[in-house]
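Fold it.
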Amino acid sequence: MRKIPVLYIVIPCYNEEEVLPKTAPMFLRKLSDLTQKGRIREESRVLFVDDGSKDGTWQVICGLAKQDRHFLGMSLSRNRGHQHALLAGLMEAKDMCDITISIDCDGQDDINAMDDMVEKYLEGFEVVYGVRSSRRKDSVFKRTTAKCFYRLLRWMGAEVVDNHADYRLISARVMRELAEFKEVNIYLRGMVPLAGFKSTTVYYERMERLAGKSHYPLGRMISLALDGITSLSIKPIRMIAAAGMVVSFLSFLMIIWIVAQFFAGQTVHGWASTCAIICFVCGIQLICTGVIGEYVGKIYLETKARPRYIVSGRTYGEEDGGE
């Protein structure tokens, strides 16, 4: 059995001033409960990461930090997106704790699953994935698209965990290895499995959001899906090459057929077939150009080597951040 760990609960926040006053006490009670049970140490903390919110989220976080020393907060200089905010919190916490549990601040993920996650860590696991036991509360559209997305990622060669978002326990050992992943375009749901290490899953039921509204509309979900595919797999480019070869082969056969028909005197002057072929080939070219452009754009961003996030403020100082 491992020694009792220091736990940091890492919570990315974006425009969450409505829900934070309701969920923050829940996280604090869970921290206290785990401490009283002797599963984590007293030095454990709740770390909020403000992802450049436009409302009063940062003021709420600062107020919480003043009320209770178990609350810590850090603020990013601008909105960088959920994955970057989560990574910022993990990298901040990795030298101050033994394990982290990342969770959204909206109260939808069952915090009682943290008990099982900590138990799994004490049994020897380095990563524990929180996996939804069902999607009964989702719409038919969301259930279908989520299922197709996970299948598509696996087909593309990416290693992902079905029905797992970003509710997970990660040990400090794994986080130190994740720090060596230097890419700007990040997709943590695929990066964590890439790191390897002994892992397992715990299952929980997802609940309704306690307040506010979701910050993951369809557009952002599609963007996240594209990031996941293009950051973890080059299979789309190989598919383009295969499609190009097929289209070229069919075009070559078409040319042979056209020449044969010409010499046989059976050609008919018309525009329908010509336009159909041109539209088909042009469509294929535009799709291929778009996919290749997506990869080229990511290469462009990676070569700049800009920081993935910039911390503009903390509710704690260097001297007491790791107490």
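The chain has two domains: 7-214+307-314, 235-304.
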